[in-house]
Write a structure and sequence with these properties.
29% of the residues lie in helices and 6% in strands. Strand 1 and strand 2 form a beta hairpin. One of its GO terms (biological process) is translation.
Length: 133
């Protein structure tokens, strides 16, 4: 029997008949490679088992596009003091000026955030939609 040159006429997955595809799955012919459409294997076949190599699994790292023409932004580290100044300081100053603080410095009319316990605040911070994730 003569050898056929299948490289001249590639039969990719879409081009072969159903019978051809079934034969390729059952008994692959090394002369007719199965076209993988540019997708690389993440492992290898060893007998009936497919061994996955974790290092070969692609890791997609998406980075936002930023133009090179944007000016450099130099920003200091956001500390706990900055957070306090932005969130709590205006309320504390307002209560102090209006005399709504008791002898210990606690507000007489606490807001919802001030009424929360430490456990409630922790649960709220870990809810879906918070910045922690």
């Amino acid at each position: 029997m003569e050898k056929r040159n299948f490289r001249k006429f590639p039969i990719y997955n879409k081009r072969g008949t159903r019978i051809f595809k079934q034969q390729q799955r059952e008994n692959p012919d090394p002369d007719v490679p199965i076209h993988k459409r540019g997708v690389r294997d993440i492992g290898y076949q060893e007998g009936d088992k497919y061994i996955v190599i974790p290092e070969k699994i692609p890791e997609l790292i998406l980075k936002p596009y930023v133009s090179y023409r944007t000016p450099d932004v130099i920003q200091s580290e956001f500390t706990a003091e900055d957070l306090f100044n932005v969130i709590y300081a205006p309320k504390v100053l307002k209560d102090f000026k209006e005399g709504k603080l008791d002898a210990d410095g606690q507000p007489l009319e606490p807001s919802q955030e001030e009424k929360m316990t430490a456990e409630e605040a922790k649960i709220k911070a870990r809810q879906t939609g918070s910045d922690i994730f």
